[in-house]
What we know:
single chain, alpha+beta, Methylamine Dehydrogenase, Chain H, 31% helix, Znf_IFT121-like, cilium biogenesis/degradation, cilium, TPR_IFT80_172_dom
Amino acid sequence: xxxxxxxxxxxxxxxxxxxxxxxxxxxxxxxxxxxxxxxxxxxxxxxxxxxxxxxxxxxxxxxxxxxxxxxxxxxxxxxxxxxxxxxxxxxxxxxxxxxxxxxxxxxxxxxxxxxxxxxxxxxxxxxxxxxxxxxxxxxxxxxxxxxxxxxxxxxxxxxxxxxxxxxxxxxxxxxxxxxxxxxxxxxxxxxxxxxxxxxxxxxxxxxxxxxxxxxxxxxxxxxxxxxxxxxxxxxxxxxxxxxxxxxxxxxxxxxxxxxxxxxxxxxxxxxxxxxxxxxxxxxxxxxxxxxxxxxxxxxxxxxxxxxxxxxxxxxxxxxxxxxxxxxxxxxxxxxxxxxxxxxxxxxxxxxxxxxxxxxxxxxxxxxxxxxxxxxxxxxxxxxxxxxxxxxxxxxxxxxxxxxxxxxxxxxxxxxxxxxxxxxxxxxxxxxxxxxxxxxxxxxxxxxxxxxxxxxxxxxxxxxxxxxxxxxxxxxxxxxxxxxxxxxxxxxxxxxxxxxxxxxxxxxxxxxxxxxxxxxxxxxxxxxxxxxxxxxxxxxxxxxxxxxxxxxxxxxxxxxxxxxxxxxxxxxxxxxxxxxxxxxxxxxxxxxxxxxxxxxxxxxxxxxxxxxxxxxxxxxxxxxxxxxxxxxxxxxxxxxxxxxxxxxxxxxxxxxxxxxxxxxxxxxxxxxxxxxxxxxxxxxxxxxxxxxxxxxxxxxxxxxxxxxxxxxxxxxxxxxxxxxxxxxxxxxxxxxxxxxxxxxxxxxxxxxxxxxxxxxxxxxxxxxxxxxxxxxxxxxxxxxxxxxxxxxxxxxxxxxxxxxxxxxxxxxxxxxxxxxxxxxxxxxxxxxxxxxxxxxxxxxxxxxxxxxxxxxxxxxxxxxxxxxxxxxxxxxxxxxxxxxxxxxxxxxxxxxxxxxxxxxxxxxxxxxxxxxxxxxxxxxxxxxxxxxxxxxxxxxxxxxxxxxxxxxxxxxxxxxxxxxxxxxxxxxxxxxxxxxxxxxxxxxxxxxxxxxxxxxxxxxxxxxxxxxxxxxxxxxxxxxxxxxxxxxxxxxxxxxxxxxxxxxxxxxxxxxxxxxxxxxxxxxxxxxxxxxxxxxxxxxxxxxxxxxxxxxxxxxxxxxxxxxxxxxxxxxxxxxxxxxxxxxxxxxxxxxxxxxxxxxxxxxxxxxxxxxxxxxx
Length: 1160
């Protein structure tokens, strides 16, 4: 940070100023002083860029109303109100109306003097404190919220907490008390900047509690400053902070004030300086952690107040009857590389780092909790941050121009200063410095595995004297680990700079230490008269420029001692940069002037306030960081970047424009530089002075320029020469005009073809004869390629159609999903065209099977057509193709292979659908039958098992119907010729409905039993004895026993129990349990069936049991009704399902078969 006085405003009649207040949003400055002095001023720089241009008073209004000394002034920025108070206790609230300030409210307590006024952070409440202890809190509209009397206390100031929940009152005895927003006492602040015995009686002269409106430097950082008259300062994170930052300014303090983001505290007062014999007015600047930044001496006798501008680029001081303005040049954390500006600014979430590509206006952001520094070199920059985890480590991030980290390093030393060259990152704390070889994608490609040996970082203590031997030993012996001194030094590091050849460190004593690179060895020490603030090294590492803490610039020659006489010494310098292509050119900023130092001689200054980013080819690029940081979301290269020329470059341009080539050549020979020779060559070539141009191009090593001169020397027509020169300088329209004027349209077309301006090529071709069809077609194709590269497929399609480029049209139609046009292309292409295969692949990729098949067949790829059907699971089309082209065995093999793959993945239903599409219903029925058996093993619900058996039976029926309806159908050849019954259970084919019948009757019997029809349930359950292979016998006979017992058919029940007791799968214990249950039942009920459970045979009139479907007399088998479970004695009156061929009484059937669920 650098500060210097820039402006002074005098108050008329020598009236002494007592207080100042600067509105940070609108820029108004309120001035209060003796004899009722109250003014509102405003400084305006107009549309000028930066703070370099002088500010003028755009407002100077005197406010009449006070008669006594105006002592307290405060702004309500949210509501644009000004509140003032004088020594008589009169309080006036001012508001603006039509560009002028008027009284809005007046209050006069007439008892005591107002010592402090403060608005809360949202501008809704004001707290006014009087010297006698009275406190008033009011609203913005003038209403009193509450008041209180702090009896026995003399108040000196007040501050609101950032959240508006607390009030801090300072007392004359040095105490600070905290009250809540309702006026209740909370606590007394623990003051630690004094020993308790010494503190008594030292008044608080200033409190400043930063409200966080512009973000914080880091989370939970100190923001509540308390300043005492004797110079002691305490900065707290909050009112309960037990570990505040304390320091002694060693001066008689008058006031203190935070800057706009709470990062710098300004303390004003008087002190006796080392080179002075009397007290002087001074302002000292400290970080929020108490580190001293800079001191500025202020002229005058009595200093009373200091206030910051809204952006903290200016600060104002009230001294006697004058207002002094000082300009501040902050030490921004920024860098510039590869046309990319990287800078940091504070927001509510932390420190945001922005990467701004100034060429393309692209922005990339990163957010870190704490940023220590930024350094940039060539294609990369390094960010020194603190790790976000709880490890407490620090991190170095090497990033490219789009904010992507390419390498990172974690370390334990605090990186207060960082530097970067083309291969190494240098980080320094107060006691140590670290050298780290970073890897980039380019270096990894170049070095490969061999580059990993450079990956070890090296840590040095500032007091050590490395000679480079340790690195050599470490490269030879990997186990060797040099020790590092970890003690604190008495002369800390304060700045750092590095090039590819040397590393320079500055120390607070004024010493400079130069090290060689890449083998780190201490080469030389230098002694300066004061502490260095910043360092810079020229492009060939022969000179070091130093700016010390007082803003004095000196040059150190690397191969000699510092010349005490000083060949170059400049004052008030705050930034500098050496030219990257000339070791004798140095650009510096002195206040608001930019100087270019050539050797030791300065050129004429340029008014500028930018930060120097690059210095190359006699051009300086300066960045207006002040404007960028003030509004970081609005970036404009025109508004925020200044490109300035060195005087020699400006003089050369003027000589070439106003004098001539000969004089300019003489001047450039006296001041040689490649940029000047190039400028001369360009001017000479425009005038067709080929001899001078060639000599100048040689001097600046411009090979394309030399080639241009050779081409021009072979051209006889001056107009063609001028056209080629115009094209060389990018004036293509002028070159084309020259070609057309001499009727060389062919040369104009060639020029546009080289430029790729195919739209203009077509225009030129249509202007007259001379163009060929091939040229026009090439132009259409190139325009189509132009739109294709930009994914504008509809426009590309139009131009490819004009060029008849079928290959690119196919691509466009695919991306536009215009498959109808693709089909039209297929129709126009001849058979076996090479592009047909590509179109077929497109159709397959989108599932258009029939179109793919027709395309492949037209191209003669029958096997590919069949494979596409298989791939799309269109087996019916595959079979049809196989039948047509005699490929059925191959298809069957592919089908089985694919089916086995699906089965291994447990995708049985897909296999069933696959077999159905291939007309292999028996194989599908087999899979369904197997699924039913698995469900039986898992003891699934009967309804699920029945459905699976029904589906299996339906597949068998479908197979049988197809064979019977069309025995000559050759699609059956696929199965007949492939062992159709191989692996098929014949029982499944012969009696396909058996499984469905079993579980149908099982569920029917259970339903009848639950509905109370025990006799029907008995009949139905007895039929289940025929399905013991499908249903567990225990389940069958338990159901028979249960149903028959409920139907009083104990004879049937007795037989069921006998069967249960004889089942071989039962254990003896289980058999005994069934025997005991049978004993309990049949000791009470004799094992006899009732008489009503017998029927009469319709054939022989014999008696047969109701549950028996076979007559014992004539052995006629009666079918079972699928609705009631009873035998059907009269089939003529029965209903029969057309699908499953099962019968039932008409009374119990509606529209759907209860067995197969098909419509009747």
